[in-house]
Amino acid sequence: MKTTKLLLHEASVLLKLTGPLVLAQLSQTSMGFVDTVMAGRFSAVDLAAVAVGSSLFFPVYLFMVGLMNAVTPLVAQAYGRGDRTAIRHEIRLGMGIGLGSGILLMPVLWLMTPLMAWMGVSPEVIPITGRYLFAISWGLPAAGVFLALRNGGDGLARPRLSMFAGFFGLLVNIVANYLLIYGKLGLPALGGVGCGWATALSLLAMLLFMAILLAKSRLAGTDHLFALSLDQSGWAIGSFLRLGLPMGIALFIECSIFAVIALFIAKLGASVVAAHQVALNFTSLLYMLPYSLATALTVRIGFTIGRGRVRRLRRTIRTGLGLALGGSVLTCLLILTFSPAIAALYSLDLSVRHQAAALLCLAAIFQLPDALQANFGGILRGCKDTRVPLLLMLLAYWGIGLPMGYGLGLGGWWGLTPGPQGFWIGLILALTVAASLLGGRVLIILRRLEGGGQPVTVGRP
């Protein structure tokens, strides 16, 4: 009975952290939806430019998201130790690195024109996309600082702050889109380029709003957070990057494999591409659930380690994985039951709907290993273990999943008819391998911690 109560308490804590994180992710996803709808009402060319620009912007942005994810376990462990000075130090360090990385990544977006030409993007779309990328690039420095503050708040177990900031940014994005795309209040009508400026403004708005929330929160370590004094050492910066860079690269790897698969599938015809996009878009929406739970696990694991309550880790891990597995079973059943209806929401074309419904059945299976690998990754981030997981994911995605997907999807392996289903089978295999390898790594780290050792060599001693 006591064990059941403890598990229920742990589940309650994790779900209270997960709920606001899901809503925060929803606000971010909604920005892309708003951009698509509002640019599409201006012109088809501008819609295409925003679509291409977004596909080039998000891998860069996700790299920054992964890099700045280092703030969460650092702050969570410091919070568990009750070290207010360390909390302030880690958040401020993240702000500095976020600002610097945002500035350094801006030129990457400015130099995308040759890549677009190589990809065969329509000549009428390239100039608009280039201006869109130039506009949105000015939001990267603000995004870097915002992500540091957001992850700092999450590490302090206050995900509602990032939720409020996210919805404030969405509101700013809608208003700015309306003014800049269509040229209201005397402003020039910028079309799709206006989406880029609107996103940059919304990132700045989220930064300012998050800063105000933290300044008024009176949370541990948030006092004097925005003082101008410099207290960062070169060692601390190096330690942060050793923790954050593998996460940034891992997110980039995960994002880029879907981009590469999309390029391969583009050879199979418009209806196939559309069906693949339907399945991918819907699963991307559902991914908010395991990703948010994984972030909650990172916070909870980091806090528990900081408290020195190593024996509690197994309970937290079992509870988190139980929630992840239960949630993935529900989403799997949801997709299997309603796959034709889901496909019908996206397209009126019967051929596209039929193919999309078939792919959604594979996407249903995809849910189970995807939830497990995401949450194993969240557990390892909480332990500040990121370098080995990066290598394991690289092996699973690029060493196994992509070659297998290519062989099944285009090579006709096992007598399978060429098509997107082969790539989805490859993705399922990649996620299954990743979940198995990361799960094994969790066991190794857990035994090391329970034996009195340290999980990794980066971070504060």
The biggest beta sheet reads: none
Computed over alpha carbons, the radius of gyration is 22 Å
Which structural class do you get from the secondary structure elements? mainly alpha
Share of residues in strands: under 5%
The number of helical elements comes to 16
Averaged pLDDT: 85
Q: Give the helices and strands as they follow along the chain.
A: HHHHHHHHHHHHHHHH
User: Ends: how far apart?
Assistant: 38 Å
| Count of all domains | 2
Flag low-confidence runs: 455-461
Task: Please provide the count of β strands.
Answer: 0
Helix proportion:
over 70%
Mass-distribution shape: globular
Task: Give a topology summary.
Layout: H1 2-40, H2 44-68, H3 71-81, H4 84-110, H5 113-118, H6 126-137, H7 140-155, H8 159-182, H9 192-217, H10 234-265, H11 270-286, H12 288-307, H13 313-346, H14 350-382, H15 387-409, H16 420-450
Helix pairs in contact: 1-2, 1-8, 1-12, 1-13, 2-4, 2-6, 2-7, 2-9, 2-10, 3-4, 3-7, 3-12, 4-6, 4-7, 6-9, 7-8, 7-9, 8-9, 10-15, 11-13, 11-14, 12-13, 12-14, 13-14, 14-16, 15-16
What does this structure look like?
- This protein is mainly α and 461 residues long.
- The protein folds into two domains: 217 residues, no CATH class; 217 residues, no CATH class.
- Helix content is 82%, strand content 0%.
- The chain is built from 16 helices and no strands.
- The protein is globular.
- The C terminus is likely disordered.
Key terms:
461 residues; mainly alpha; 2 domains; 0% strand
